[in-house]
Amino acid sequence: MESLTIQKLFDAKNRQFEIPAYQRSYSWGKTQIEQFIDDLRNASSQYYLGHFLFESSSDNTLLIIDGQQRLTTCVIFFSSVKNELNNRKQNGETVSIDLDDIADYYIRDIRKGTQKFKTVEYDNNFFVNEVIDRTDRSQYPATRSQEKIRKAKEMFEGELEQTETLEIERWYNLVENATITQYVVSNKAEAAQIFAFQNDRGKALSKLEILKSYFMLQIYLSSADKDLINENIKYLENEFSTIYQRIVNVDEKEDDVINYYWRAVSGKGFGSNEIIEGVKSALYEQDNKIEWIKNFVSGIASAFETVYKVKNSTYGYIRDLFYLNNMALSYPFFIKADRANVTEETFNRLTRFLENITFRSLIRGGRAGVETRLDCVLRNMDLTDDAKIDESIDWMIDRIRTDWWWGYWSDNEMMRIVNSGWFYQNRVDNYLLWKYEMYLCNDNHPMPHKVTFDELIRNESIEHIAPQTPTNGDPIANGYGVYEDMETPENGIASGALLNCVGNLMLISQSHNSSIGNKPFTEKLASYGKDNLLNQQKEIIEFVSDKENPIWDKTAIEKRHEKIKNAVKDIWDLNKI
Q1: Are strands 61-66 and 460-464 parallel, antiparallel or unpaired?
Q2: Is the CB of residue 518 less than 8 Å from the CB of residue 477?
Q3: DSSP string, 77-115
Q4: pTM higher than 0.70 for the full model?
């Protein structure tokens, strides 16, 4: 192990640095960059950048095995410093740092013109345009890591613009002379061993990184034949290269995807939360550990591919599952179905079932967890081909209909909640009304404005057609029938708990809702659908008995309530799955 500075690290003749594809792409965000800047601002004369592990490659290139985030950040910082000081120099300001030295050491070799530092291959062209050459070629970030590269550059530029030249030069000298330690190994086997011991001993890593280091260590310990070790490690490198390329294209947290995958393949289902220990225990029981590791890592790569496929699907029921915001329930099933190479038809049927039971579980709420019922399917049932998955879906539908343990999500229980006079502020009230809107569109009504559920709900609120009692004590406006009926409470809107039932609730824009407030019903009715293409607003007049003198009373609410109830039965009809 050798102690040196960043300048000495880059100073070796013809030396280049490269992040291999099997390592993580750039992931530092706002918090880490702010911390980097604060460290420079508060440092006096010394700065320590930590330990780096390299694997020597051909042509005097060092592959960065550990430390790529810090080294990438340093290069972005040096590029930003050079750019800012160059601008000041052109404006006549005195700059004491040799800007050509910055370029020669950290950006491009002044003799050969070669790039001194390369990031992972799929980000490198963007990195060249954005950081190395700072070209005018506008390039939209294609991955999250590219977005983070641009954000880091912009944060450095913004901070440097507001900093005095002498202070910028002080920061530059701090980083250039920052103390580091390095360890350079000559082969993959040795790199794997050191990386594993270094990163599996309490360092805060993601589950994926812990598994990678653990698997590499196991491969290193598996044989005395270095050629075989290198071959197996190369296989893992290629698989992790694929994994990291897929990670940057999905929004899910990587540890969440690892959780979904482990629940799908471990045989422990939704109760399998301790992945690292679980994997180690499973590997211990294997006769052919190396083959098991290869299959497991290939499966992780496929799991990220499944998440990407699902996330980018245009299938309506997948879209709806995302709106319900409970994908942790669905992803393990999707991963398992993909591993079985099921047809699109079967995959879509599985999706429809998952949307249906997710809605039923969310609308009911309560302490009964649907995961505990689905767990036996995920763990024990044979989800290996189309026929087996279809059988599993049929079995679960039958349980919902006939098994008391699944009865929390039966048709009767679902409709009990929909029938409730207190449906307002149910966790899926917006979703139900959105699905009702789509149902109206399929029922020979015009299609609504082409926006997603998320876009709509950001701007929509729940309208009480018959308004709630004003909090300031004002009387209810005209046109809403009897609110309180002491003699026959069931005939009053408020006393009959109809105010908060689904028949009196409607999607409406927040601004529209605020503008109509407690106005008379005739004024509200005139505004419904006027500047909005939602069919559930336009159809309100259909439930009014006297169209000439419209009143939104108990009868109108009950008519609309009945229509929505029938729509719910049809939308979430188990026979349609």
Answers
A1: unpaired
A2: yes
A3: HHHHHHHHHHHHHHTT----S-HHHHIIIIIB-TTT--B
A4: yes
